[in-house]
Amino acid sequence: MRMITTAILSFTLFAFAAQDARAELREEQDINAGLLAIAVADKIRRSCDEISGRLWTARSYLNGLKKMAAERGYTDSEIDAYVSDSDNKAEMRKLRNAYFHSKGASNLDHASLCKLGRTEIAAQTQIGAFLKAK
Are 53 and 130 in contact (CB under 8 A)? Predict the structure, then answer.
């Protein structure tokens, strides 16, 4: 019985620690800005036939963000839990769509996303670095 109680207590503490880490990761502005750039580029490349993604560049950048988080003390499981969390995904979509709106585009208008993608590529932004005109 004591072993079961210890296991339950350990699991509960781990769950709270992971939740705290996700909350702290939410505050890492540079990491989240990087995740947003990837989310914006991903939506553009999936919506625009004229633009493809530089998937290796994006993967390398994403690995750099993960390394940055690890250097700040987050574990792989905490990082994965944060990125996989449905609430965090919904928040990222909201931020992505707000970015589109701020640039005169819409996540529902493929032509506006193509135009934004070409603009990002031409301006050599971080988002543009993840995209390539066909």
Answer: yes
Short-list 51, 65, 72, CA closest to 129: 51
- Cβ neighbours around 120 below 10 Å, total: 22
Residue (of 25, 33, 129, 13) closest to 84 by Cα position: 25
Amino acid found at 71: E
Two structure tokens written together for 91: 């928040």
- pTM above 0.85? no
Domain boundaries, given as residue ranges, for the chain: 2-133
Hey, how many other C-beta atoms are within 10 angstroms of the C-beta on 26? Answer: 15
pLDDT tens-digit map of 53-76: 999 999 999 999 999 999 999 999
User: In a 10 Å sphere around its CB, with 0-12 CB exposed, 13-18 middle and 19+ buried, how is residue 131 labelled?
Assistant: buried
